[in-house]
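Why does residue order matter? Because the sequence determines the fold. Keep that principle in mind as you read this record.
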Amino acid sequence: SLQFLKDNRLVRTSSFTGDAAAKEFSDRLRHYGLDWKVELQDKQVPRVKVRSGGRILIKRDAHFNSDRIMDVIAHEIDVHILRNENAKQQPYLLLQRGTANYLPTEEGLATLAKKVVSKFKYLCSS
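Structure:
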């Protein structure tokens, strides 16, 4: 189990391994009916990386706090991937790549989604 500081106390929480996180990511993709592939990586540096071509890479030996896994999924799938998938449906494919300086705005939205899910866990339930 992982330990983290909450209200100046050390708290234990269970964690997901990369394999278990991959299942959670796959479940969310299936919920949306998306045909993205979730792949485990041994040498990848970040815990999660969204790649073009419909792939999500997850570091095999990464650990995800069980209380926070839905936050990461909200950030990566509910914002980044859904924006990409919605852009594919638009007549102007420019939106798939993003307009000038879109990244700070999208990261802001993804961070907001993460915080909302963290505060209101019931938003994650299927």
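The radius of gyration is 15 Å.
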